Amino acid sequence: MEGPVHTGSIAILDFGGQYAHLIASRIRRFGYPSYIYPCDTDPEALQGVAGIILSGGPQSVYEKGSPQADTGIFDLGVPVLGLCYGHQWMAHTLGGKVSPAQVKEYGRTEAQRMKNEKLTMKNDLFDSLPEKWTVWMSHGDEVSELPEGFVRIASTKDCINAAMMNAERRFFGIQWHNEVTHTEHGMEVLERFAKLCKPAQWSIKSYADHVGEQIKKDVGDRKVFMLVSGGVDSTVAFTLLNKVLGADRVQGLLVDTGLMRKGEVKMIEEAFEKLGINNLHIEEASEEFFRKLEGVCDPEEKRKVIGNTFLDVQRRVFDALKAHSSKLKAGEWMLGQGTIYPDTIETGGTKHADKIKTHHNRVEAIQKMIDQGLVIEPLKELYKDEVRILGEELGLPHELVWRHPFPGPGLGVRILCAKNREQGAGSREQLAQDAPYMVLPVQSVGVQGDGRTYRHAIVVFHDRPAEVTQDLLELATKIPNSNKEINRVLLCTSQSAPVKFSLHPSAITRERADLLREADDVVLHEMQRAGLYEKIWQFPVVLLPCGTKPGGQSIVLRPIESTDAMTANAYVLPSAVLQSMTKRIMALPGVDAVFLDLTNKPPGTIEWE
User: Fold this and answer.
1) In the annotation, is 297 catalytic?
2) CA-derived radius of gyration, the chain
3) Which end of the chain is more exposed for a tag (fewer CB within 10 A), N or C?
4) Every domain of the chain and the residues it spans
5) Comparing 10-197 with 425-597, is the CATH topology the same?
6) Which of 179, 191, 346, 485 is catalytic?
7) C-beta of residue 245 within 8 angstroms of C-beta of residue 221
8) In the chain, what is the greatest distance between 2 CA atoms, to the nearest angstrom?
9) Domain 10-197 falls in which CATH fold?
10) In angstroms, rounded to a whole number, what is the distance separating the alpha carbons of residues 398 and 406?
11) Which superfamily does 207-408 belong to?
């Protein structure tokens, strides 16, 4: 929620990371009002708030131009909690010291409470928590010296001042992210802080009513031309617009890009028919997308091409429909999208956020339309878990609401490409000299310290390739933390001994899309057969332009568990399921190897691009 200060609310100061809206969402779930503000908001504008939370961010507090808040917030007499960057900024501003960390922590680590007689003081947020618990880190700097008046209340193996407090002033700093589900007791600590603030009570009677009023205000007398991908977000957004505005003011468009999952277009069409939603036009445009993507290899360029082609098709279809219908008239419409908050954040859509990747619904042409007030995005401030709640309130069937998330650009961001055979060759050769593991000749997008990385993956081999051990999971955290050139760790599930992988020039083609579609379909059926579909939050299947034979390709399995996509655990598949998936995928023509991605988020993003 964004808006003016309400007396008794909790203010979230946004330092530009990925987490401000997630924090606000958690606070709302506790039944308290929460509003988001730029980090440099004038303290005078915050008079009357019950408390302040300082969010994470991707920069270093000691760097010139890094985001800063006004120190006057510390004179408001309210509790203040700093998380990640917010923790460091608080320490730095109040006289402590922040330095580059000796070991940069990304992902799961263990926190330990301090045994200190001073911690018997009131307001300890960790009171009654176990001596040790698992937390989620994403930082490259650390608080090396505490400010005056603060005591250390928790450490990790590699971060001595992982949490601090000044009990008298009710100031707290925590290096890890309590707002993510992968931090044990994280919600408990956030709720304790919220209660300490003694905020006003707040409840949501209905997400649909709340968002619906905003839709009516934003759309006014206009109509909406809605782009539907078939994923959860656009399905919920399209259904909501139909409910709020009526079918006569909404026209849906589903574009068959050639990058959809197997049988997906037909399934979507039938699902909407069952819902009684008949204002959906389906346009077959795969040839156009493959033609525009010919020779395009750069991940960001691919996303932009796909996003711009979506827009080209939308305009063409709109003009064609307009010629045969009085429903669509120039100047009366807005473009509708199922954008959710992580899309905006990862595109660098807030003041200090680092760009992780450009989403197809945030290409330049669409951003210009947004600036002109020509785009309606009813879900833009929601996370995936909130979208699902809204979908259930709208009466959508369970199988639609709980479908695995699927990226708007479809398989286009799961088909990795290469301009030549030397992609990242220099850094790869250097890594190969230092590491006991095979360095894969491809690079992928990651997120470390809330910032974008584009780095190598390494492959681990062992004599039981379908078995994921605890040692392997620990390696998947340890290696990226200690080697800045690595952001993913893979297990080869098709070979037990190291083999040489060669990169070959490849772009997106219909043949490569068809191959990945078949591999993706194998994974879907194996998940369903094993009863795992609803236990796994998302399961990207990725095609790599490298193999053991000339022109051969490899498949990466990327099962993850999450609730909001901001953080994720690599899901550990049962050995029998992993073995069956690998055997069936290896039987597909042109597949030389299968890998399992063991990397959490961070340091690896859920998608590879």
Assistant:
1) no
2) 25
3) N
4) 10-197, 207-408, 425-597
5) no
6) 179
7) no
8) 78
9) Rossmann fold (3.40.50)
10) 16
11) HUPs (3.40.50.620)
Is the CB of residue 219 less than 8 Å from the CB of residue 212? Answer: no
For residue 187, give both structure tokens. Answer: 């919600």
Catalytic site residue 179? yes
Task: For 352-368, give the DSSP string.
Answer: TPPP----GGGSHHHHH
Catalytic residue among 84, 197, 417, 492: 84
Q: What integer pLDDT is reported at residue 223 of this predicted model?
A: 92
The identity of residue 197, as a single letter, is: C
Question: How high is the pLDDT of residue 358?
Answer: 44
The residue type of 206 is: S
Peptide bond preceding 559: is omega within 30 degrees of 0, i.e. cis?
A: no
Q: What CA–CA distance (Å, rounded) separates 123 from 118?
A: 11
Residue 25 amino acid letter: S
Ranges under pLDDT 70 in the chain:
1-6, 17-18, 116-123, 202-207, 210, 324-331, 341-363, 365, 421-436, 448-450, 564
- Do residues 607 and 299 touch, judged by C-beta distance below 8 A? no
Q: Pairing between strand 151-156 and 97-113?
A: antiparallel
Bridge partner residues of 492 (DSSP): 595
Decide if 154 contacts 112 (C-beta within 8 A): yes
Instruction: Check: CB of residue 544 under 8 Å from CB of residue 590.
Output: no
Coil/strand/helix, residue 132 = strand
Which pLDDT score, from 0 to 100, does residue 450 have?
60
pLDDT at 434: 54
Residue type, 302: K
Pairwise CA distance, residues 415 & 544, whole Å: 7
Q: Tell how strand 223-228 and strand 250-256 pair up.
A: parallel
The encoded tokens of residue 391 equal 């979908």
Give me the helices (H) in 293-424, please.
299-324, 341-346, 364-371, 384-393, 398-401
Nearest CA among 582, 319, 601 for reference residue 466: 582
Give the right CATH number for 425-597 from 3.40.50.1820, 3.30.300.10, 3.30.70.270, 3.30.1330.10.
3.30.300.10
Q: Which two tokens stand for residue 180?
A: 């993510």
Reported as type and span, the H/E element at residue 520 is: helix 510-529
Q: At 499, list the tokens.
A: 């083999």
pTM: 0.69
φ, ψ for residue 16, nearest 5 deg? 95, 5
> Which tokens is 148 given?
């005056």
Distance CA 273, CA 267 (A): 10
Helices (H), 94-250: 186-197, 207-219, 232-245
Q: Do residues 540 and 608 make contact, with C-beta atoms less than 8 angstroms apart?
A: yes
Instruction: Provide the β-strand partners of residue 445.
Output: 454
**Dist. CA 80–CA 74, nearest whole Å:** 8
Looking at residue 97, its amino acid is: K
Side-chain half-sphere CA neighbours of 407 within 13 A: 27
Is the peptide bond prior to 602 cis by the omega test (within 30 degrees of 0)?
yes
Alpha carbons 347 and 362: distance in angstroms, whole number = 7
Q: Is 121 left (phi over 0), alpha (psi -120 to 50) or beta?
A: beta
One of 87, 92, 177, 456 is an active-site residue; which one?
A: 177
Q: How far apart are CA 172 and CA 87, in angstroms?
A: 8
